[in-house]
């Protein structure tokens, strides 16, 4: 999910969330459940919604209303006007009430307040769920198994787009651990799957995770049923080749419920 939220400073942070709640895994999985949790985390696939939290018909859950349009029909800057902690409390509530779920946060990070992200994570009660930076593989190794992550309650992965915060705050720099293809219209060219500027080459297997974007620069619910069907499957196959035979772990789309049936 891409969500703009405000910290205690006026500087925003954008959050991308992928949860096992929205899983399409390589093993026998259905939404919210997997019959096989024994594989490493990087052997599963997570459906990730671009510009989410603006869910059509969905009420707020923390006592603080969100200023949103319907699901993914707004710009990032329209999404939220309340402090980050209010949105993060929704994530804490989800983790607390769903002990078999894993959540990944990708922070498109513009926060300049020193240790600002760590502060709001702590205030939201998320620190106890965080997967430790020290255990994240850096040289292409497998991640721990989902079974182990659930057993240790290390069910929240947090990544930042600011490289320096890995050292200053202990928050993993996203592109140290994954490769990512181009987003927007440039990432929807049939037969082409190239890395975004911040990512290393897609076939860099020192990065254990793969994030694949497939959504237009301007959201279009009208064409989502086309984008999210055969075209999406074709791009997954294209990116499978580009990444050296790896399936994506995160598939980011618009209007994830809109498909051709």
UniProtKB/TrEMBL annotation:
One of its GO terms (biological process) is lipid metabolic process. PROSITE patterns: PROKAR_LIPOPROTEIN. Residues 1-28 form the signal peptide. InterPro entries: PI-PLC_domain, PLC-like_Pdiesterase_TIM-brl. The keyword Signal applies. Pfam families: PI-PLC_cat. Keywords: Signal. It comes from the Eukaryota. GO terms for molecular function: phosphoric diester hydrolase activity. This is PI-PLC X domain-containing protein.
């Amino acid at each position: 999910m891409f969500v703009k939220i405000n910290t205690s400073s006026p500087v925003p942070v954008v959050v991308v969330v992928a949860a096992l709640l929205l899983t399409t895994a390589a093993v026998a999985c259905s939404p919210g459940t997997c019959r096989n949790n024994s594989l490493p985390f990087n052997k599963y696939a997570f459906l990730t919604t671009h510009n989410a939290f603006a869910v059509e018909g969905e009420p707020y859950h923390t006592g603080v209303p969100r200023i949103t349009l319907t699901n993914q029909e707004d710009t990032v800057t329209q999404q939220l006007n309340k402090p980050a902690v209010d949105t993060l409390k929704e994530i804490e509530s989800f983790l607390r009430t769903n002990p078999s779920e894993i959540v990944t946060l990708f922070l498109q990070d513009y926060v300049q307040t020193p240790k600002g992200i760590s502060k709001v994570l702590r205030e939201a009660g998320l620190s106890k769920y965080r997967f430790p930076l020290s255990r994240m593989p850096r040289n292409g190794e497998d991640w721990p198994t989902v079974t182990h992550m659930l057993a240790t309650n290390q069910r929240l992965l947090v990544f930042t787009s600011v490289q320096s915060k890995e050292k200053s705050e202990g928050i993993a720099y996203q592109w140290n651990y994954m490769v990512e293809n181009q987003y927007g219209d440039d990432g929807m060219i049939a037969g082409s799957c190239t890395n975004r500027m911040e990512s290393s080459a897609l076939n860099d297997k020192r990065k254990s995770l793969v994030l694949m974007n497939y959504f237009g620069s301007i959201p279009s619910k009208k064409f989502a049923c086309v984008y999210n069907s055969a075209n999406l499957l074709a791009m997954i196959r294209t990116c499978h080749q580009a990444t050296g035979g790896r399936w994506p772990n995160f598939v980011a789309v618009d209007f994830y419920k809109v498909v051709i049936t």
